[in-house]
Amino acid sequence: MSARRGLWQLAQRAFASHAGRPGEAVPAISNAHRLAPGSSVIQVPQRLLMGPGPANADPRILAAQSLPLLGHMHPPFLKIMDEISEGLRYTLQTDSKYTLMVSGTGHAGMEAAIANLLEPGEKIIGIWGTRVADLAARYGGDVIELKADAGRSFSLEELTTALETHKPALLFLCQGESSTGVHQSLAGLGDVCKRTGTLLLVDTVCSLGGVPFFFDKWGVDCMYSGSQKCLSAPPGGAPFALSERALEKLKGRKTKPATFNLDMNLIGDYWGWFNSRSYHHTGMVSMCYALREALSIVQEEGLDNMWSRHLEMHEMLWHGLKKLGLEPFVERDADRQDPTPARTPLTRAGAGVTFCSRAPGAGVDWAAVVKNAMDKYYLEIAGGLGPTAGKVWRIGLMGYNARPQNVELVIDAFRDGLQKQGKL
Amino acid sequence: MSARRGLWQLAQRAFASHAGRPGEAVPAISNAHRLAPGSSVIQVPQRLLMGPGPANADPRILAAQSLPLLGHMHPPFLKIMDEISEGLRYTLQTDSKYTLMVSGTGHAGMEAAIANLLEPGEKIIGIWGTRVADLAARYGGDVIELKADAGRSFSLEELTTALETHKPALLFLCQGESSTGVHQSLAGLGDVCKRTGTLLLVDTVCSLGGVPFFFDKWGVDCMYSGSQKCLSAPPGGAPFALSERALEKLKGRKTKPATFNLDMNLIGDYWGWFNSRSYHHTGMVSMCYALREALSIVQEEGLDNMWSRHLEMHEMLWHGLKKLGLEPFVERDADRQDPTPARTPLTRAGAGVTFCSRAPGAGVDWAAVVKNAMDKYYLEIAGGLGPTAGKVWRIGLMGYNARPQNVELVIDAFRDGLQKQGKL
């Protein structure tokens, strides 16, 4: 340490040229914000993350993140990027050449989709509340919001009417809605969108890997997702895909996207869409290892097994909570009185996140149940968000976490939490 | 596997409701893009990354990335975010409350800075070639480019003249320029910027941790950096800071930034700048562990030792290559004939990346030297970029990699590569 300090004294004279004024001393270093010795050990307590996300990552994926770095343009790294693109083709069920991981979270994926597929002044019909409307308006979009009661999805007929009325450039749907858990059916929409000159954009952040998704067969034009839910990787990478139609739109833009960082012409080129591999940004090397490993796990398990496992765990939770007197927030197919196709419940599907609410008027303190689960079981379950705040619990059964012992623990925590309030 | 397949058959009926048409079968799953069994092991060969970046990450930082996930709003994770903010205060030498890690690479940091501090129609004076000019123009900026010959930086006098002539809203400078390695002096600029109503924005992607930087004392208003160079973490997080003046500008904007994903009002709130911690996006949990650990290492070593170490390794490389007859691309202070202050060489400083070129006309095949280094030593050195393409080698001595044995290996690889061409 003191030898180094001596070097620092000598170095100061050399560094003085940095100050732009020869001979002027480098400022003194302040230790005001330096950690005290011994206080620098990172504290990461073990938690079981059964809320809306992130879920616990598969340990195999965490281990992949500790592999040594490669250069972001090295051939072995480009091979890993190619494996991600190919793994996404299987996971999304598409033959599209245009798949990749956006360097960013699901929100970056959302912004990449809208910023690149919408030109200023064009119409977008969107559903996902104020966020997407805010985002699309910033990019100059003419935003038409479709409003639904919390927990309700749209029927093909409703969406067809909206598409034919407005003929928007972009239709934005969320397959698994994170604040209510409602599942949005996509089948049949692709044809209508083609007729009205609309690109079909789908958010699968909560749902990808947890429920069926068929990019090609459902005529989806753009999909983005997140790494941290049913794919069991840490948050940080956004799976992304475009159809040929969407790529034509991107290539034929009259204006550049306002964002340089998320310009898919440039990012696509880095990922080999156009065979030149030019540098746009430094790829997230560790995050790519993680997503590559996550997609390997999907391919090893197989989509059929993965979707079935999520469904099975969902049913197990549903039955367990039912016994405790809890009701799902989104109606279950088999139980519903209302035959309108507008209600396409998540509860038969297990789209990653599922939701329960006590029957109205029962006076359960939801927050106390959440707190008890964390304090006693180190288990995360969550309250509502936005339209469901104070009305529901949000429980995620996603990816690596969708296993029987975790479902049992969630049910135990609810039983214990309700008993403590004298509600059982 | 077959029990699961049976479940899938049963599940198909349940999933059919997803198709929006009761009774309609879910499409068949295609295995066209599924990996062949046994082919799914990730291949990460060991490389020594001594190019312009990323550098090899410190193994302690890689290990931190394999720690289990926390929720992005859990108190223990918020504590880690606070530790990052505080660690940045030390590393940047600032008392500013407004420090954080942007969820994205250095380019995301660049976009966050410009998108938030520039309103459409405002003037920005920038230096870093076509990229920043392109980016700023997308955000409606009136872009005035300052052009310098490759390898030259600007004097305080030149910048003062430009500031007084244009009175721009934003001055963009790069402390350590990655394609040439030139170091831009910052001292004295803050005062001029205050006088002309300009915010001083500095890119420290290549330089942070490698050379002196004093955010407060040099009057910097906004700084962004990258995680993958002298900080020795993987690429993916962008250290970011604002001064009080910059925050006032952000708060007083007449328009929203076009980007929602990088709106610093919203991101700052998630990081506790305004004491409410509202959800904006899902923080990159593993990447935060990594940067937190990287900043701990900076605090343990101390900035004086860290800067001295980089200088020492730089001098070692400089002397080693000199003996092989190579000349630095950017002039060395002690050697220069030209006394104009416009030339503030990197070579005395060791700002992460350093550059060498053969004396003109020597006819060395630079690419063969690079290829030999990789083939024989698994060592990355790089060629030039943009204005220096074909003219220089780029060698990085950054963070964890800035150690004597690595410098020796680089010199050995040059000796070997040059000998093979009969140039030694």
In the sheet with the most strands of chain A, the strands line up as 2-8-7-6-5-3-4
Largest protein interface? A-B, 132 and 131 residues
Mean pLDDT of chain A: 86
Give the number of DSSP strands of chain A.
13
CATH superfamily of the largest domain in chain A: Type I PLP-dependent aspartate aminotransferase-like (Major domain)
Structural class of chain A: alpha/beta
So, CATH architecture of the largest domain in chain A? 3-Layer(aba) Sandwich
Q: How many structural domains can be distinguished in the coordinates of chain A?
A: 2
**How many angstroms does the end-to-end distance of chain A come to?**
63 Å
GO cellular component, one term (chains A, B): peroxisome
Cofactor (chains A, B): pyridoxal 5'-phosphate
GO molecular function, one term (chains A, B): L-serine-pyruvate transaminase activity
Binding site for substrate (chains A, B): 394
What does the model show?
The structure is a homodimer of 424-residue chains. Chain A has 424 residues and is an alpha/beta fold. The first copy, chain A, has two domains: 59-300, Aspartate Aminotransferase, domain 2 (3-Layer(aba) Sandwich), CATH 3.40.640.10; 303-420, Aspartate Aminotransferase, domain 1, CATH 3.90.1150.10. In chain A, 38% of the residues lie in helices and 12% in strands. The first copy, chain A, has 13 helices and 13 strands. Chain A has helices at residues 2-15, 59-64, 75-92, 106-117, 129-138, 156-166, 189-195, 244-251, 264-270, 285-301, 303-323, 366-377, 404-420, and strands at 48-49, 99-103, 123-126, 142-145, 170-174, 199-203, 222-224, 237-242, 326-328, 353-358, 379-380, 382-383, 393-396. In chain A, strands 2-8-7-6-5-3-4 form a seven-stranded mixed sheet, sandwiched between helices. In chain A, strands 9-10-13-12 form a four-stranded antiparallel sheet, covered by helices on one side. A two-stranded parallel sheet of chain A has the order 1-11. In chain A, helix 5 links the parallel strand 3 (123-126) and strand 4 (142-145). In chain A, helix 3 (75-92) packs across helix 10. Chain A is globular and about 65 Å long. The model of chain A is unreliable at 17-23 and 333-352 (pLDDT under 50).
